[in-house]
Specification:
heterodimer; A: 3 domains; 8 helices; 24 strands; B: mainly alpha; 2 strands; 45% helix
Chain lengths: 412, 102
């Protein structure tokens, strides 16, 4: 019997278990998935928790619920990968051999990378919303806050879900309007980028929305430290921005396991072939989701598209066929803009987000790069789709793994 | 588009970055630095040469990586090329603006 081992039972790992157990069956194959955690979190929900839109129950379920019965779930901490020996070492010393390994250990925040970020004000006036605890602490703070300077900040790229901090700023604007205290809150969006987003067309639209919502933007800000006494963030050029509440997205890094195994780049991401998702160093190791260093967005939609292509490539690898170089960096993201509206963007390695209709060319019903209520309904419906369709590895009708150029208004 | 820099016809993109590094020389670098109000010192040149070398080796440039280069720390990088050092320094060096971001 051969062994396929998946590290990490988050969005990406769980989807792979659900895809592969149909094809790699006992007695020929044993699939094992390893994760030390008990809970599976709907991470996009962290964005809504601070504004009391979702409750903790909406976004937390058990890992077991989503793992097929013929896949072995091992709840254990992983000490290291021994890629030259094709082995996984668990803490406590036990070992597991693999024929094929899938790394899906994700990315995490590393506030300790920035001086003073995890200082005396951490979770008092300095918050993150990329963890459940951070998001909940922020919710409790916002419930009682009476106003002042709210600074929404990105430390450095790349980060998971690069649109999330913008959405946070838009939702905050809407939240304080509803509480009839928008005039008491000054919102500033601080980014290391030169503009609101990483792609030019979308940046134009998003900056327009920032202006419309009276959100200040401070760009090209590379943070050096958080001053906990003066309550300001300071960049390497000496520029200081004061805050009463700082909502920051700290540096994101791959799991410490990758560093312990000596398999990562300087941010612990595993060097991965961007079209096949095979590790650049080891042929029988594949990487998907946030754990890889491919130049695609770190987002659930990307992991979903990757999983469809990786499933095919793993079956090809098993049969000794050449891998398909098919993954195009496809991402599909809703951007909440507040007031019950949202934008939708659809893009890949080579095509930036533009206006158009989705998923049916010329029809929609969703509008690309334009605010609409329908897009917002799409985003809310997505939580249901995530739990009931996406994690189970079911193909989402009409949305292909590679991006379609139809119905999109590219400049010729 | 084409423009004249240091007396030479040079192809640049809409943000003013050179699209063909073979058109770059030190005179062009000096002219571009003057436009950015920077007077180049030997220290600037060391950084510019380093960036060009990294680009040639297809290394993705980021502020973090430069901080770990052993050549300059981020603080000094900011002193040499104020405000947005990576954008300014790559433009003077005649290499593309880093796509440090997705």
């Amino acid at each position: 019997m051969k062994n396929l081992v998946i590290l990490g039972a988050g969005t990406a790992g769980t989807m792979m278990a659900n895809h592969l157990h149909h094809n790699l069956k006992q007695p020929d194959w044993q699939i094992t998935i390893i994760d030390e955690r008990e809970e599976h979190h709907y991470q996009p929900g962290y964005l809504f928790l601070p504004f009391d839109t979702y409750t903790p129950e909406d976004i937390v379920k058990t890992i077991e619920e989503f793992i097929p019965k013929d896949v072995t779930l091992l709840k254990h901490k992983i000490d290291r990968i021994l890629p030259k020996e094709n082995k996984i070492q668990l803490t406590g010393g036990s070992e597991l051999s693999y024929d094929i390994l899938i790394i899906a250990t994700g990315a995490k925040i590393a506030p300790e990378e920035t001086e003073g970020m995890k200082g005396s004000e951490w979770q008092k006036s300095v918050f993150d919303f990329y963890t459940f605890e951070g998001s909940l602490a922020l919710r409790n703070k916002l419930r009682e806050w009476e106003g002042g300077k709210l600074v929404v900040h990105i430390t450095e790229m790349p980060i998971k879900c690069p649109v999330a901090p913008l959405e946070f700023a838009f939702l905050a604007d809407s939240f304080f309007k509803h509480k009839h205290m928008r005039d008491k809150v000054e919102i500033t969006y601080v980014t290391p980028l030169s503009g609101a987003f990483t792609k030019p067309k979308a940046t134009e639209t998003l900056e327009h929305l920032l202006v419309e919502k009276h959100i200040n933007i401070e760009s090209d800000f590379a943070i050096e430290h958080v001053d906990n006494d003066k309550k300001e963030i300071v960049d390497y050029g000496g520029r200081a921005i004061p805050f009463d509440i700082l909502v920051t997205v700290p540096t994101n890094k791959g799991d410490a396991l990758i560093e312990r195994s000596g398999m990562g780049d300087d941010l612990n991401y595993v060097p991965t072939h961007k079209a096949t998702l095979q590790s650049k160093e080891y042929q029988n190791i594949f990487v998907l989701g946030d754990a890889s260093n491919i130049p695609a967005s770190k987002a659930g939609s990307v992991a979903h598209f990757e999983a469809e292509i990786l499933t095919e490539n793993i079956l090809r690898f098993v049969h000794g066929d050449p891998l398909k170089e098919e993954f195009d960096g496809h991402a599909n993201c809703f951007i909440e803009t507040g007031g019950g509206k949202a934008l939708l963007i659809d893009f890949n390695y080579t095509h930036e987000p533009v206006e158009g209709s989705f998923p049916f060319a010329g029809i929609g019903p969703l509008r690309l790069l334009k605010e609409s209520r329908m897009n917002h309904m799409g985003k809310l419906a997505f939580r249901w789709i995530y739990w009931h369709v996406l994690l189970k590895g079911t193909h989402i009708p009409f949305v292909s793994a590679t991006m379609s150029e139809k119905g999109k208004h590219y400049a010729s | 588009m084409e423009r004249t820099i240091a007396g030479k016809n040079i192809t640049v993109n809409e943000e003013g970055y050179l699209t063909d590094f073979s058109q770059w020389d030190e005179k062009v670098g000096e002219a571009l630095s003057a436009e950015a109000n920077i007077a180049l010192t030997p220290r600037h040149w060391e950084v510019i040469k380093y960036l060009q070398e990294e680009h040639k080796n297809q290394v993705a440039l980021s502020i973090r990586r430069i901080g770990k280069s052993g050549l300059v720390d981020i603080k000094e990088f900011y002193q040499l090329f104020p405000n947005a050092p990576l954008k300014t320094a790559t433009k003077i060096a005649g290499i593309p603006k880093p796509a440090s971001c997705i």
